[in-house]
Design a protein that fits this description.
Distance between the termini: 39 Å
Low-confidence stretches: 293-300
Protein name: Selenocysteine lyase/cysteine desulfurase
Pfam family, one: Aminotran_5
Largest sheet: 7 strands, mixed
Helix content: 40-55%
CATH class of the largest domain: Alpha Beta
Domain Aminotransferase class V: 26-244, 332-429
Keywords: Lyase, Pyridoxal phosphate
Number of strands: 13
Number of domains: 2
Structural class: alpha/beta
GO molecular function, one term: lyase activity
Mean pLDDT: 94
Shape: globular
CATH architecture of the largest domain: 3-Layer(aba) Sandwich
CATH topology of the largest domain: Aspartate Aminotransferase, domain 2
CATH superfamily of the largest domain: Type I PLP-dependent aspartate aminotransferase-like (Major domain)
Length: 437
Amino acid sequence: MTVLDIDYVRACFPALSEPALAGQAFFENAGGSYTCRQVIDRLSRFYHQRKVQPYAPYAASHAAGAEMDEARSRLAALMGVDEDELSFGPSTSANTFVLAQAVRGWLKREGGAVVVTDQDHEANSGVWRRLADEGIEVREWRIDPDTGHLDPAGLAQLLGDGRVRLVCFPHCSNVVAEINPVAEICAMARAAGAFTCVDGVSYAPHGLPDMGALGADIYLFSTYKTYGPHQGLMLIRREVGELLPAQGHWFNAGTLHKRFTPAGPDHAQVAACAGLADYIDALADHHAAAGQGSGGAPSVDGAHRVQRDAERALAAPCPSPLDRAREVHRLMREHEIRLLRPLLDQLAGRNDVRLLGPSEAGLRAPTVALALDRPAEQVATALAAHGIMASGGDFYAVRPLEAMGVDRTRGVLRMSFVHYTSEAEVAQLMLALDAVL
């Protein structure tokens, strides 16, 4: 199937059929997405049947541990990394903080500099900048103050003397939203002898990372922004993971996925993350089956459609988990770009707002931040009367806003969506913006 089946997608998200939310269009996905049914079902089952200490010999405990292991194994396969190269933590901010402690110890011993950007959310900026307090050199890769663009030529200058050991940057900013050329940046850093740490929090909801294609050494994102529970996922390539000093219990240092998790895991939420893999697989199966449709045959729904999809999926060649994730990624992005274009066209016709980041839909994530002539939170409040759920503020992106000359006291109005958003909801947003602005 060449386009996303939006009806099928929306049926996977209970919030979208919740009577209490009827008529409300959700445009705050960059702060946290709705949760898919597959995750909710697994979380509910875990709390009902498996809320015991995992990995003990009795049946409930065995089932709990097996489901936690399933989450790590299946998600790792979808992103093209070894199972033990994926770690779970309480959030991306917490994971990045722990990682920075490991880098501090490594660089104090080995020497070298760290590169940060002023395009980042503070979680992937502040912890690295504080390394300067320990005498570690921190270099800033700066954005264009007009466009927010992060030019790789600026990084090349910072890498020139060969002292940089780590480059930290976002896949895309949570306010600028331009999709950075991660593979190009990682190749530049590697050629200069540096590792890379990519903050994928603002991009992963639009498609899971293909780590082989990106070439990143470390990639972090949050599952609560990617249709799941409140967890942070940290992908760490073995080479860098074994090089950095462990931050967990000393007796766990030999297990890669435990080296940078000093606290015990949230068993239920880790297990529920397997629901993300269920969801990706369900989308892949459904669209593969729909692609084998029989011309003008009448459509079916409900249990018959589920049975039909399953039969066709079994009959079709079985791609690898990574290939399935790539195809789902494509479907998601093409749908998002198609919905984003009319919104950007509408904003381009106004002279009373400033769009942060590119005006071309294919170059950005569907996170739209606007600088206005009044406090953004006031506009968000007015939009709420039109059934639009959005908000205003700095969104912890203080550095890029200041670099672009945006008044922090006003902040920006941010409207963000993902692939489960419908054309009707975007049309509702556009009408509301016309009325409010």
